[in-house]
Write a structure and sequence with these properties.
The protein has 256 residues and is α/β, with parallel strands linked by helices. Helices cover 32% and strands 16% of the residues. The chain binds 2-phosphoglycolic acid (PGA).
Length: 256
C-alpha cells in the first residue's frame, strides 16, 4: 500500500484527477470505478476542466446507489454523477453504470456484478472512506468476499449523509453497493481521505491489522492500492513516519 501525503483537500483532488487522466491516456477504453459523496467533488471539478473527449471509449461503474430513490431524484447518485461529471464529458450514456435503486435488488445486484465481469473488470477504482471505515456502502461486519448486494445503512452513515438532504428522515435506509469482494477485484485502487473526521478510520487502516469491523482494512491484501490523504486525515504518528510525500511542483509537472 502506497501512501501519498498532501497538505490539503485541493491537493488530494489534484492527485486523484491525475490518476484518472493518466489511466485514460494510457488506456482509452479503461473501465473506471467511480465514487460519490463529498470527498471526490474536487476531483470531478478538476476533471470537468480537462479534455472531455478522453472518455469516448471508457466505461464507468459507480460503487453504489441509494435504494428507493429514482434515478431522477436530486439526491440519487445517478443525479450526482450527471451534475458533477457526466454532463460535462463525452461519455456515451450506455457506457456509464450505477445500480438501479428502484429495481428488484436481488436481480439488479446480480446483473450489476455480471456487467462488471463482462466488461473485463475495473482497471481503476476510486474510493472514499467512511468515518466508520466503510468502503462503498459496505458497513462494518461485511464479509470481505461479498459481491454487489443490498445493505441497511448504519445510523452514523445516514447522519453523515444527512447534509445532502433536508432532514435525517429523508436519507434512505438502504442502498445497493458493490461488495468488498467486487472492489478487491479492481486492478488498481485509489482511496481518498480528507479531514479530521477520517483520522480514526485511517489510523485503523494504516495500523495494518485486518478486521471485518473496519471494511477498508480488506484493502491491505490488495497488490495495488494508493491512499491519498491530507494531513488533517492522518494521525500524528503516521505523519511522522510517512514514507512518501510528493511536492506539488512534481504533480503540476505530471499534469501538463
Ligand atoms: P464522504 O463519504 O466522501 O461524503 O465523506 C465517504 C464515504 O462514505 O465513503
Amino acid at each position: 500500500m502506497e501512501l501519498i501525503v498532501v497538505n490539503h483537500e485541493e491537493e488530494m483532488s489534484k492527485w486523484a484527477a491525475y490518476y484518472i487522466l493518466r489511466q485514460l491516456k494510457q488506456k482509452p477504453d479503461s473501465i473506471l470505478g467511480l465514487a460519490t459523496g463529498g470527498t471526490p467533488l474536487g476531483m470531478y471539478r478538476l476533471l470537468r476542466q480537462q479534455d472531455k473527449q478522453l472518455y469516448a471509449k471508457a466505461t464507468t461503474f459507480n460503487l453504489d446507489e441509494y435504494a428507493g430513490l429514482p434515478a431522477g431524484h436530486p439526491q440519487s447518485y445517478r443525479a450526482y454523477m450527471k451534475d458533477e461529471l457526466f454532463s460535462a464529458i463525452e461519455l456515451p450514456e450506455a457506457q456509464s453504470h450505477l445500480p438501479d435503486g428502484m429495481a428488484d435488488p436481488e436481480i439488479e445486484c446480480a446483473a450489476y456484478e455480471e456487467q462488471i465481469e463482462a466488461s473485463g473488470g475495473i482497471d481503476l477504482q476510486i474510493l472514499g472512506i467512511g468515518s466508520n471505515g466503510h468502503i462503498g456502502f459496505n458497513e462494518p461486519g461485511t464479509p470481505f468476499d461479498s459481491r454487489t448486494h443490498k445493505v441497511e445503512l448504519k445510523e452514523e452513515t445516514r447522519k453523515a449523509n444527512q447534509r445532502f438532504f433536508d432532514k435525517l428522515d429523508d436519507v434512505p435506509t438502504h442502498a445497493l453497493t458493490m461488495g468488498i469482494g467486487t472492489i478487491l477485484k479492481s486492478r488498481k485502487i485509489v482511496l481518498l481521505a480528507s479531514g479530521q473526521e477520517k483520522q480514526e478510520a485511517l489510523r485503523l487502516l494504516l495500523s495494518g491489522i485486518q478486521t471485518v469491523d473496519v471494511p477498508a482494512t480488506s484493502l491491505l491484501d490488495h497488490p495495488d492500492v494508493t491512499v491519498i490523504a491530507d494531513c488533517a486525515a492522518l494521525p500524528e504518528t503516521v505523519l511522522e513516519q510517512a514514507a512518501i510525500s510528493f511536492s506539488m511542483e512534481h504533480l503540476n509537472l505530471m499534469m501538463t
